[in-house]
UniProtKB/TrEMBL annotation:
This is 7,8-dihydroneopterin aldolase. CDD domains: DHNA_DHNTPE (cd00534), DHPS (cd00739). It comes from Corynebacterium aurimucosum. It holds the Pfam family FolB. Its cofactor is Mg(2+). SMART domains: FolB (SM00905). PROSITE patterns: DHPS_1, DHPS_2, PTERIN_BINDING. It catalyses: 7,8-dihydroneopterin = 6-hydroxymethyl-7,8-dihydropterin + glycolaldehyde; 7,8-dihydroneopterin + O2 = 7,8-dihydroxanthopterin + glycolaldehyde + formate + H(+); (7,8-dihydropterin-6-yl)methyl diphosphate + 4-aminobenzoate = 7,8-dihydropteroate + diphosphate.
Amino acid sequence: MAVSNLTVPGRTLVMGIVNVTEDSFSDGGRWINVDDAIAHARHLVASGADMIDVGGESTRPGAVRVAAEEEEHRVVPVIKALHEEGIKTSVDTMRASVATAAAEAGVDMINDVSGGAADPEMYHTMAATGLPVCLMHWRTVQFGSAAGVADHGGDVVRDVHESLAKLADNALQAGVSHDNIVVDPGLGFAKSPQDNWALLKALPEFLQGEFPLLVGASRKRFLAAIREDRGAESSPLLADPATAAVTAISAQMGAWGVRVHEVDVSRDAVDVAAAWNAGAAYTGGEHASGSYANGADGGTVVSTSLGRLKPMADRIELTGLECFGYHGVFEEEKKTGQPFIVDVTCWLDTAGIEDDLSRTVNYAELADVAANIVEGPSRDLIETVAAEVAETAMQRFEILHAIEVTIHKPKAPIPRTFADVAVVARRSRKRMAG
């Protein structure tokens, strides 16, 4: 399974939090009973969550680590029950043994707040499971408690960039697939309020990176302090509206996912961002053309904490390309064929600033590249087709530094009513060269 299998076409994924703990900072003890945790997860899904993040160990300031056996005892029954109900889950753990047990129970993603650094076996376990993974930034000498503020060398944005790159390289060297990696800047983990705001301001930079981005700001103290600053009552639970504001902005910019406690209001925020980005293409809940991916709108100039004005990459979108192909695992699909819809998003240098044709791509040629492959030789998996389109386009158009290809299969042989089936392939110049 790749991250693309978890990606929600057209909008940011909403990850609902279920803490099966006694001491989490905002809801500790509420879901420590397995049945209560499962019921809460169902409620979050009914409220609009796409995935449930199940954790059995608190990382709040001052928290004491629980034994591995206890952590496993807390999370595995919940994950197993949700998996049997068809609910996607991630396991929030820093332990390889717990990740392995969760994988056996049917978990869909490993979410490690240490970025894989807390357990020397974690990267190999991630690779062995073949699951998507989230690597979070947390600069600390003692994983387990988020207390204290780390020294980020005076530039938290640069430090987080460089640290996440190292964590990703460690995972890749251990055998984790590039397409299985999501990164998280680690808001609130050994970071001052100023650090957290600097990272949020720099989200456009992170969104230009080669890995999808998860944003986890839910109920963090720096958001609760917004109310304190104006003399209003403040608590983690009262930070949900501020969380929704961060969710909306992150989603509008193109974050892959947001991790939240209160799903209902954040799902509204995500849907507003999707409608906002789609503009006139928004169709009230159906899949809209013009779906977005990592990256903000091209040509925008963003002032960052790196102390300079950085022109962001232009983004070209080709959406709704209709093709007819013979791909699928069933003989009938290979014999009679079916329609496919292709969306292509390309990132390149800011051609619009200089009105330079040599710094862009020919839209018709891009469409031909995609159509020729989709309408070409039969493949069992549309994942293979999407990857071939992405790699061929990167080779054909040297100006591109990243591409995302989404292939929709609207007539997939599924004996139920459904809106869409799609796969997403991402490629970047840096990784193809490496």
